[in-house]
């Protein structure tokens, strides 16, 4: 039952497998705030609009943020003045860099765009070359996801189907297509090696409930949605053999920033002797930072905790702590999979052996 992976550049592809579309004069983003109730596409024609969409989480997930920002830079060139185009694109890059702080894919993509910008001789040249680069970033991310799924399955070396547990949303919605951790889940399903995937609902923004469950149900992949607090009880049952998550930033020593709750899950996995795998493209690895404590962790508005869907579930005046990522130390991770290869026990070598 091998499933053909849709091309995200094929406009006729079904929307469940595509979350970012490049139209040439605009980028279209499937508005993730409105899922699963509504499949609503935003059409954005400028960098400021892309920055706002990232900030407001209309698009989210580390690779998808980087890809969208790259298209934002391309749009800035299109909309720029003939004389001041270089300054205008520089300003757009600075605005995009302020959108969210933790996922390094944003800064990685902007750096790539900036180095192409430096080589451009005219606005016309910049319009063409920046669009080409953004498309390349998008395509490379999809290719990386497919390669990581192959590498992960080889490393898991399963001889029979198993159950896995995942956190947040790391699927087609969070990436250039297919997914990182969820790409591995998809590939397990394609190879008939998946019994079921437990999806943490992922409080407070509910990426697991609203997005992961939506993607998997659409694709007919057996998914069980659970409250985050149920993860320990699920691992205690002994059915789950792997916890598989994505990442927003991986430091040189192999520490991993990912959606809040990931660290607790890694502690639970170690306690229950369940393997813990992180799947992320090399664009998520930040070799300039030595350890996880160096990573800037985003804190978002307290309303995300006090309310669900705009309805108050806590006193309006209660104090709230809302960090949206945490850091899992390398010593709790069994495997980090990138498209460039696999790091076993990252505590021992960090990311140095793979990415130098
Ligand atoms: C392939 S996505 C990996 C991570 O970006 C994902 O797990 C995550 O933490 C997303 O956070 P979000 O706040 O939804 O952008």
TrEMBL record:
Transmembrane segments: none annotated. Coiled coil: none annotated. Substrate binds at residues 60-62, 100, 207, 258-259. The record marks 168 as: Transition state stabilizer. The lineage of its organism: Bacteria, Pseudomonadati, Pseudomonadota, Gammaproteobacteria, Pseudomonadales. Belongs to the EIF-2B alpha/beta/delta subunits family. MtnA subfamily. HAMAP family: Salvage_MtnA (MF_01678). Its EC number is 5.3.1.23. Pathway: Amino-acid biosynthesis; L-methionine biosynthesis via salvage pathway; L-methionine from S-methyl-5-thio-alpha-D-ribose 1-phosphate: step 1/6. GO terms for molecular function: S-methyl-5-thioribose-1-phosphate isomerase activity. This is Methylthioribose-1-phosphate isomerase. Catalyzes the interconversion of methylthioribose-1-phosphate (MTR-1-P) into methylthioribulose-1-phosphate (MTRu-1-P). Also catalyzes the interconversion of 5-deoxyribose 1-phosphate and 5-deoxyribulose 1-phosphate. Part of a bifunctional DHAP-shunt salvage pathway for SAM by-products. One of its GO terms (biological process) is L-methionine salvage from methylthioadenosine. It catalyses: 5-(methylsulfanyl)-alpha-D-ribose 1-phosphate = 5-(methylsulfanyl)-D-ribulose 1-phosphate; 5-deoxy-alpha-D-ribose 1-phosphate = 5-deoxy-D-ribulose 1-phosphate. It comes from Marinobacter segnicrescens. InterPro entries: IF-2B-related, IF-M1Pi, IF_2B-like_C, Initiation_fac_2B_a/b/d, M1Pi_N, NagB/RpiA_transferase-like. Pfam families: IF-2B (PF01008).
């Amino acid at each position: 039952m091998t499933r053909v992976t849709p091309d995200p550049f094929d406009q006729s592809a079904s929307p469940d497998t595509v979350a970012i579309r490049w139209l040439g004069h605009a980028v279209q983003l499937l508005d993730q705030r409105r899922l699963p109730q509504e499949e609503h596409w935003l059409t954005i024609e400028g960098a400021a609009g892309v920055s706002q969409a990232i900030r407001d989480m209309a698009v989210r997930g580390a690779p998808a943020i980087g890809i969208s920002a790259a298209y934002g830079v391309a749009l800035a060139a299109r909309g720029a003045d003939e004389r001041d185009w270089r300054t205008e694109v520089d300003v757009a890059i600075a605005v995009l860099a302020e959108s969210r702080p933790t996922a390094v894919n944003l800064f990685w993509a902007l750096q790539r765009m900036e180095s192409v910008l430096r080589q451009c001789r005219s606005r016309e040249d910049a319009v063409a070359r920046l669009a080409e680069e953004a498309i390349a970033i998008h395509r490379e991310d999809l290719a990386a996801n497919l390669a990581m799924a192959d590498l992960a399955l080889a490393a898991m070396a399963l001889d029979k189907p198993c159950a896995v547990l995942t956190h947040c949303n790391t699927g087609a919605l969070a990436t250039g297509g297919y997914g990182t951790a969820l790409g591995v889940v998809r590939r397990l399903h394609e190879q008939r090696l998946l019994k079921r995937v437990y999806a943490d609902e992922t409080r407070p923004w509910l990426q697991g409930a609203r997005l992961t469950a939506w993607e998997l149900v659409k694709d007919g992949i057996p998914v069980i949605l659970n409250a985050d607090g149920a993860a320990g009880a699920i691992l205690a049952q002994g059915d789950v053999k792997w916890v598989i998550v994505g990442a927003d930033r991986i430091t040189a020593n192999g520490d991993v920033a990912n959606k809040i709750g990931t660290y607790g899950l890694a502690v639970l996995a170690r306690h229950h002797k369940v393997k813990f795998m992180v799947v992320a493209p090399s664009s998520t690895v930040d070799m300039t930072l030595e350890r996880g404590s160096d990573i800037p962790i985003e804190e978002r508005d307290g309303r995300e905790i006090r309310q669900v869907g705009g309805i108050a579930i806590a006193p309006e005046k209660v104090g709230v702590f809302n960090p949206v990522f945490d850091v899992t130390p390398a010593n709790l991770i069994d495997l980090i999979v990138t498209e460039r290869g696999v790091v076993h026990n990252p505590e021992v070598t960090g990311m140095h052996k793979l990415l130098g």
